[in-house]
Specification:
Helix content: 40-55%
Bound molecules: pyridoxal-5'-phosphate
Strand order of the largest sheet: 4-5-15-10-11-14
Number of strands: 16
Strand content: 15-25%
Largest sheet: 6 strands, mixed
Distance between the termini: 35 Å
Low-confidence stretches: 1-18
Mean pLDDT: 92
Length: 516
């Protein structure tokens, strides 16, 4: 030991303490005493007992809109994210942003706005997998590796995911080639669409692994969860220099990057003269797990002039019922719709809103979440419900969704995907009910090329039953939008992942991949 090491330690301690005092901390929705810095919360993903990390307070946007209007997407991302991820240095955060929002996106705008009929479509599908999950999953791997470095984690990070299709591919694309990480995705061999399977098994990158299982999605997910909680396996992996992590949608490293595009959208509306600075702008979000709309809620809390938060559901309308009655009830039939990424009965991110309207009372929140776990149902108090006045919930049936696709196409020559169409249909209901013509931005969450079959059948029944790739060419002709690279690629790409296993073999497959 050096003589002055005590002094040095003292100095370091002072630095750390100062940082802890100044940094915005995150608290668990299920235990207020559990705190973490942003980087720790990103590394952990979930808090203990299933709690979610929430920022202690929502920071105010500190750049005026007229300045934001002149900024690129990347510059806007920095201005927003630095307020939430306060323990990242400027260099770290800018590094993450540059690596995420680059030529993987097929437009420099990253999230362009397209006006059609009486709405503004915020296109969040210009990334590697042509769906909005790319907005967060292209930056999460970099936030995660930066967080690991900051917290002295030396192990290589192994992302384990079970997927029913979309998230798996977006996570693979995000983590592919990112140093210090590996990603292993399990999917039900006979439970995803042919396009989804091709997208995954053709994934390039030496650190990517894709495995089909003989079983359904639930079995894949249960298998992954068991590996996460397997202490023996963790020990074995640690000895080999690995540790597990997840790319789950409740990670704040996915939530924070989603706030950015609402700020960007507002600034662009002002820049293009579509809205005057200060005018309210409604936001319409096709909702599943409640992550995307929660990001809009946080943007509003930051001071962005967002009007109504319009929550659009498909026929799995748990959220519509919740906003209407104050009762969240998952005890119902699970329906398969043409907007599969919204086929969800438990919207995990809603817990963050519940915690907030419960006055940040962790005990109250715990009680409700226990009821949800045990009986599948809870009811909020009238005081809590009163705080939901900023939200409007509605839903669209399958017919209404198809009609929205057809109408927007026939009327404006613009083709939207099934998820976006749910939002468009709900927005139409909102307009009819309220007569409110305030400008509205619709979060456009997937490219129509990703759901070609349903989209084309909605436009004209003659397309029903035709093979996906044939319809891709038809869609190009109708829309005049070039077939995205993500689709072109999988037509010809080589299948590189061929592993298939039984459910009980999953841990052995993982160990096999990680052998050095
Ligand atoms: C994930 C997803 C949604 C739902 O978003 P949440 O943040 O889970 O509410 C909507 N549309 C598409 C295309 C998605 O992939």
């Amino acid at each position: 030991m050096e003589i002055d090491s005590a002094e040095e330690n003292f100095y370091n301690y002072g630095e750390i303490k100062k940082r802890m005092d100044e940094d915005m901390l995150y608290r668990s929705t299920r235990n207020k005493e559990e705190k973490a810095t942003a980087s720790q919360a990103i590394l952990k993903g979930l808090a203990e007992n299933g709690g979610l990390f929430v920022p202690e307070q929502i920071p105010a946007l500190d750049v005026p809109v007229e300045k934001l209007a002149e900024m690129t997407y990347q510059e806007t991302a920095y201005e927003v994210m630095k307020l939430f991820l306060t323990d990242f240095t400027e260099e770290e955060l800018k590094g993450c942003i540059q690596k995420a929002y680059d030529a993987k996106f097929d437009t420099e705008a990253i999230a362009p706005i397209h006006k059609a009929q009486d709405a503004y479509y915020l296109e969040l599908f210009h990334g590697a997998t042509i769906a909005f999950k790319d907005m967060a999953l292209s930056i999460l791997p970099h936030l995660l590796t930066a967080s690991a470095r900051k917290n002295g984690v030396k192990n290589e990070i192994v992302i384990l995911t079970a997927t029913s299709g979309d998230t798996g591919k977006a996570a693979l694309a995000g983590f592919a080639g990112v140093k210090g990480t590996k990603i292993i995705v399990f999917y039900p061999k006979d439970g995803v669409s042919p396009i989804q399977e091709r997208q995954m098994v053709t994934q390039k990158g030496e650190n990517t692994f894709v495995v089909g299982i003989h079983g359904n999605f639930d079995q894949a997910q249960t298998g992954v969860k068991q590996m996460f909680s397997d202490k023996e396996l963790a020990k074995e992996l640690a000895a080999a220099g690995y540790q597990f992590s997840s790319a789950n949608s409740i990670n704040i490293g996915r939530l924070v990057p989603q706030i950015v595009y609402y700020v960007y959208a507002y600034a662009q509306m002002v820049k293009k003269g579509e809205a005057a600075n200060g005018d309210p702008m409604h936001v319409v979000v096709p909702t599943g797990n409640f992550g995307n709309i929660l990001a809009a809620f946080y943007a509003k809390q930051m001071g962005l002039p967002i009007g109504k938060l319009i929550c659009a559901s498909n026929e799995n309308k748990v959220l519509y019922d919740f906003f209407a009655t104050g009762i969240y009830d998952r005890n119902r039939e699970f329906l398969l719709t043409s907007s599969p990424s919204m086929d969800i009965l438990i919207s995990s991110n809603l817990e963050r809103l519940i915690y907030r309207i419960a006055g940040e009372d962790d005990q109250k929140n715990c009680a409700l979440m226990d009821q949800l776990k045990e009986g599948g149902r809870y009811e909020i108090t009238p005081e809590m419900k009163a705080q939901l006045a900023g939200f409007y919930g509605n839903y669209a049936t399958e017919e209404e969704t198809a009609a929205a696709i057809r109408e927007v196409y026939e009327d404006a020559g613009y083709i939207i995907d099934t998820h976006t169409a749910v939002a468009a249909a709900v927005y139409k209901k909102y307009r009819q009910e309220t007569g409110d013509s305030t400008k509205a931005v619709i979060a456009s969450t997937a490219s129509p090329y990703k759901f070609t079959r349903s989209v084309m059948a909605a436009i004209d029944r003659k397309y029903q039953g035709r093979p996906d790739f044939e319809l891709v060419d038809e869609l190009e002709k109708l829309s005049g939008v070039k077939v995205p690279k993500a689709i072109e690629e999988i037509r010809s790409a080589e299948v590189v992942h061929k592993t298939v296993c039984e459910v009980p073999e999953m841990p052995d497959v993982v160990k096999g991949f990680l052998k050095k």
